């Protein structure tokens, strides 16, 4: 007893097609043709993910999840209110990485610190940190595609609250004196490097090493990859981290890596995620290599972050890291009906953090070398090893 | 200008093609629907056979797949447990189609209210925006919300058979004989895929040969051979006849309420209003069963969590054999809990175009007491129960079935403990025969009708 009067609609295939994610600004104007597989198209799609993230951030700020007066300065699209579960996820992701970063800065506050944000896009973390820690000796670097850095510089130039933050304790230059079409910016505190990260894979100790001005090889440093390395082939991602560690830092320098990445590609949700993103020309090569939290930990270890390899999924972080009263505040912001879906979604993203103390063979480990161990002592990781 | 037979049929045709109908016609349909719904009690009586469906959430193409798999209206008698709107791209077309079918065939389709049939929720989760986008004003949204206020809060299915008439459908490719009971036994549960192929067939617990199929079923926790009778609480007799001593089946979107201990108390509620933030009406639409004792606070911020003890006492007091509810995404489309005293049915495959889940509908057959034979749900052919896509977990079997879907702590032993609490005379009713058809998402862009390319959101 099938219903014969309901047509098998597959026979009508192709009568109406197209209409890419209209009005939402995702995957805009991407061709949906065979050449969609070409590298240029994929690069463009990856670059486009940044505005997606920027929009999510603005949605979170407008609803009160996050305090970020700078988010709206960078979002180029009209803000779209995201679904409550996405807002919740963006909130957890941002505040989790904030906690790790802030604990780092607050450990031995007199000590200079450095952060290198890979594929930073429109991230506002530097500006927010400047508000929290106006006196911190912080050297901040952001690396991204030239198109992204150019538009970021443009936004900074247009918004006084942004460029006022670039040179702390100095009279603000208004606007920044930049040559037209500038894609990079360098200062003792904030540096924007226009660079395709993949260029780092062929750098060596020789003079061919790509120049990253103001990167201090001796200051304890966090490398930050928030949905960045996951768009690269695992070998490429490894080479980039390897080059950064070996070429740009002294072996004695404590260096950490914080990553935010998707996990669990092989369950129904993960498979659907891969195919949905593929239709937007977005591939997540590391996802199919580092399947679980344990794979991510092993990855950190093999990249050289041998003194600590930690990981937790975002669902765990929401439950264990966010204080009860803060949970209540956030839960009250929006009625969130989709609990099963939320849990499913959050379990497919993780934060991993690993570090090396940086004391070479035969060298005495100083207190400074233990900066990450001390900073992150209380950050509980998820114990999934028995499962 | 009343919407008559042919106008209505035209509207149904148009909606089936996923095209919205004019605003004036929406108003007319909504008016007619309210006239019908106002006559319904808070708990609608429904006779088996009936096909029970869970959340739809505006996934129009999947609703059409549901009709393809379950049979069309009016051939099949349907009961939809709410959450027609929000999240998907076609809430408007989905809800209006169901509403038109309700007006056209009032006795063949029952609609009850879900927590998303609410002004407040639809402004957050998409239906309001969709109406605004498709009509340029909020009028249609307003008409629909007025209908929401008149939807019944629950349904009571009576006359369901305890044993299924087995289909003569072929077995699905990955079905092992171990998970298929002989058809001369009392069939309690059968699962079929979208093509109507048998994925599993399970005899009632008291039948002899079940222990065998149970042992062969790898997905199941091992269970003692003799738990069957305790598991069902039935008389333990296995006379092999098509019995009809099953209790009624209560259908409600969410679940139970601490303020409601009898179905009559649901009947006393004043339902014709926006879903309140608290109270019995809110709980019925928002609560969830959970592996707890008694009542618990719901993390959703509305409704409650309720445990097996609550369900079993409620079912006994109200002479129910089963509660069917929706409200929670379950990856396998359906999930039985608490020794099959409650089941979650979820009918939105690949929910939000993102979750990768399969969907299910639940068919309850008619008991054979009137005519001496069970009639199939649809056009009466032998293939009366046709079915759906690959089932994620098809590995369950025999009398351990209920434990596979229930809590470990409340397996047979838990039930024994409970029957002690209830007293010997407080035995639970034998559940109805249950046929689940499991189906996957319809291909979104192959429907020959307006199809928005799904853009599921992720963290990028």
TrEMBL record, chain A:
Ranges of compositional bias, category Basic and acidic residues: 40-50
This enzyme's EC code(s): 2.1.1.233
Any GO BP annotation: methylation
Secretion signal, residue range per the UniProt entry: none
Reaction(s) this enzyme catalyzes, per UniProt: [phosphatase 2A protein]-C-terminal L-leucine + S-adenosyl-L-methionine = [phosphatase 2A protein]-C-terminal L-leucine methyl ester + S-adenosyl-L-homocysteine
GO molecular function: protein C-terminal leucine carboxyl O-methyltransferase activity
Keywords for this protein: Methyltransferase, S-adenosyl-L-methionine, Transferase
Binding positions (S-adenosyl-L-methionine): 93, 119, 196-197, 226
Chain intervals for the UniProt region annotation (Disordered): 1-51
Superkingdom in the source lineage: Eukaryota
Enzyme class, first EC level, given as a word: transferase
Its job: Methylates the carboxyl group of the C-terminal leucine residue of protein phosphatase 2A catalytic subunits to form alpha-leucine ester residues.
Family: Belongs to the methyltransferase superfamily. LCMT family.
The protein, known as: Leucine carboxyl methyltransferase 1
Species this chain originates from: Delitschia confertaspora ATCC 74209
UniProtKB/TrEMBL annotation, chain B:
Classification via Pfam families: Metallophos
Sequence segments annotated as region (Disordered): 205-242
Entry EC number(s): 3.1.3.16
UniProt KW Manganese keyword: yes
Leading EC class: hydrolase
Comp. bias regions, Low complexity: 206-218
UniProt family annotation: Belongs to the PPP phosphatase family.
Protein name listed in UniProt: Serine/threonine-protein phosphatase
């Amino acid at each position: 007893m099938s219903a014969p009067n309901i047509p098998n609609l597959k026979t009508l295939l192709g009568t109406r097609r197209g209409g890419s994610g209209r009005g939402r600004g995702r995957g805009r104007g991407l061709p949906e043709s065979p050449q969609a597989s070409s590298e240029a198209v994929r690069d463009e799609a990856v670059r486009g993910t940044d505005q997606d993230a920027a929009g999510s951030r603005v949605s979170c700020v407008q609803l009160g999840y996050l305090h970020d007066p700078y988010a709206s300065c960078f979002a180029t699209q009209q803000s779209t209110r995201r679904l409550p579960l996405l807002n919740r996820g963006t909130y957890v992701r941002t505040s989790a990485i904030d906690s790790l970063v802030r604990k780092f800065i607050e450990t031995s506050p007199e000590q200079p610190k450095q952060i290198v944000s890979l594929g930073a896009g429109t991230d506002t973390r530097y500006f927010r940190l400047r508000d929290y820690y106006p006196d911190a000796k912080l050297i901040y670097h952001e690396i991204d595609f030239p198109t992204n850095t150019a538009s970021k510089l443009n936004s900074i130039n247009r918004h006084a609250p942004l460029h006022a933050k670039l040179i702390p304790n100095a009279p603000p230059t208004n606007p920044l004196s930049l040559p037209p079409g500038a894609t990079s910016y360098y200062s003792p505190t904030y540096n924007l490097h226009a660079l395709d990260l993949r260029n780092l894979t062929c750098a060596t100790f020789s003079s061919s090493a790509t120049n990253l001005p103001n990167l201090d090889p001796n200051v304890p440093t966090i490398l930050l990859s928030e949905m960045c390395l996951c768009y690269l082939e695992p070998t490429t991602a490894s080479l980039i981290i390897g080059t950064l560690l070996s070429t740009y830092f002294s072996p004695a320098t404590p260096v950490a890596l914080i990553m935010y990445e998707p996990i669990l590609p092989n369950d129904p949700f993960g498979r659907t995620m891969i195919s949905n993103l593929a239709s937007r020309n977005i591939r997540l090569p590391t996802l199919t290599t580092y399947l679980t939290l344990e794979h991510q930990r092993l990855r950190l270890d093999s990249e050289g972050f041998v003194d600590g390899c930690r990981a937790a999924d975002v669902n765990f972080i929401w439950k264990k890291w966010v204080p009860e009263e803060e949970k209540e505040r956030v839960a009250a912001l929006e009625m969130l009906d989709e609990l099963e879906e939320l849990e499913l979604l959050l379990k497919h993203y993780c934060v991993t953090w690993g570090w090396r103390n940086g004391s070479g063979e035969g060298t005495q480990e100083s207190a400074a070398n233990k900066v990450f161990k001390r900073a992150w002592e209380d950050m509980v990781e998820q114990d999934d090893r028995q499962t | 200008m009343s919407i008559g037979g042919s106008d209505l049929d035209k509207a149904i045709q148009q909606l089936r093609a996923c095209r919205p109908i004019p605003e004036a016609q929406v108003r007319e349909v909504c008016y007619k629907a309210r006239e019908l719904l106002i006559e319904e009690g808070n708990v609608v009586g429904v006779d088996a056979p009936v096909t029970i469906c869970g959340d739809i959430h505006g996934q129009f193409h999947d609703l059409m797949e549901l009709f393809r798999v379950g049979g069309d209206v009016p051939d099949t008698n349907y009961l939809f447990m709410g959450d027609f709107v929000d999240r998907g791209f076609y809430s408007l077309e989905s809800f209006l189609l169901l509403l038109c079918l309700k007006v056209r065939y009032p006795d063949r389709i029952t609609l009850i209210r879900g927590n998303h049939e609410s002004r407040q929720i639809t402004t957050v989760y998409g239906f309001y925006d969709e109406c605004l986008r498709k009509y340029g004003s909020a009028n249609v949204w307003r008409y629909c919300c007025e209908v929401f206020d008149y939807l019944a809060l629950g349904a009571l299915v009576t006359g369901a058979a305890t044993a299924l008439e087995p289909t003569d459908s072929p077995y699905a490719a990955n079905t092992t004989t171990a998970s298929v009971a002989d058809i001369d036994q009392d069939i309690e549960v059968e699962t079929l895929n979208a093509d109507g192929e048998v994925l599993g067939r399970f005899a009632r617990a008291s039948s002899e040969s079940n222990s065998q199929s149970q042992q062969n079923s790898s997905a199941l926790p091992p269970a003692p051979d003799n738990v069957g009778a305790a598991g069902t609480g039935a008389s333990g007799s296995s006379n092999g006849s098509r019995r009809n001593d099953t209790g009624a089946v209560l259908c409600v979107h969410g679940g139970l309420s601490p303020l409601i201990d009898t179905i009559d108390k649901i009947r006393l509620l004043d339902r014709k209003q926006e879903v309140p933030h608290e109270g019995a009406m809110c709980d019925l639409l928002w609560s969830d069963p959970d592996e707890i004792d008694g009542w618990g606070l719901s993390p959703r911020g509305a409704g409650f969590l309720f445990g097996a003890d609550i369900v079993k006492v409620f079912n006994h007091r109200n002479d129910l054999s089963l509660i069917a509810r929706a409200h929670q995404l379950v990856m396998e489309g359906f999930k039985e809990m608490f020794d099959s005293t409650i089941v979650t049915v979820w009918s939105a495959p690949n929910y939000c175009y993102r979750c990768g889940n399969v969907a299910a509908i639940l068919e309850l057959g008619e008991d054979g007491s009137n005519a001496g034979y069970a009639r199939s749900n649809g056009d009466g052919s032998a293939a009366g129960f046709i079915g759906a896509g690959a089932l994620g977990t098809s590995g369950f079997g025999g009398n351990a079935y209920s434990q596979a879907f229930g809590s470990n702590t409340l397996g047979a032993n838990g039930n024994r403990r409970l029957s002690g609490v209830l007293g010997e005379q407080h035995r639970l009713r034998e559940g109805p025969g249950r046929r689940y058809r499991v189906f996957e998402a319809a291909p979104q862009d192959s429907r020959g009708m307006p199809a928005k390319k799904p853009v599921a959101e992720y963290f990028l």
